[in-house]
Amino acid sequence: MGLLDALFRSNEILGIAEETLEFAIESSEAAHPREYMGFLRGTEADRLGLERDGLVITDVLVVPGTETNSVSATVKTNQIPNDVKALGSVHSHPNGVIQPSNADLDTFGRGSVHIIIGAPYRRTDWQAFDSQGKPTNLNVIDVELPETEEFFDFTQADIDEDLRG
Ligand SMILES: [Zn+2]
């Protein structure tokens, strides 16, 4: 399975890996009272042992240079690597209000699922939203995650190889 196949074969998001969700919640708590912000990346379900098409969110990419304070996180978009295809975003609301702000709604158009995690960062203190900012159901899936290097080892050479087939 090549990288480009993994990116384009199916855009359906089946859910988020339980481990990934827990990581994001723990990271949000660690960042408090500052806002935590990251992008969501996925892995093909069949690579995780699920016998179906689609993607499972398995990874949170925190962009270098993200500036956060208690009310907002600003991402320097030129810091986002070109080879990263984000399915959506995750960020925290240290004030505990688990609803998109107007500024959030402006950015939700990029990507299809956006998670907001709120203080006090319990396991249930989160909600997924669609690109319109409407609450959406996101399954939490108990899967074994592959070795992390598989996620981060993509290089231009890999992509070129895929393009050659
Ligand atoms: Zn927000």
TrEMBL record:
GO molecular function, one term: metal ion binding
Keywords noted in UniProt: Hydrolase, Metal-binding, Metalloprotease, Protease, Proteasome, Zinc
InterPro entries: JAB_dom_prok (IPR028090), MPN (IPR037518)
Protein name from the UniProt record: Proteasome protein
SUPFAM superfamilies in alphabetical order: JAB1/MPN domain
Pfam families in the cross-refs: Prok-JAB (PF14464)
Domain MPN: residue ranges: 14-135
Signal peptide: none
Any single GO CC term annotated in Swiss-Prot or TrEMBL for this entry: proteasome complex
GO biological process: proteolysis
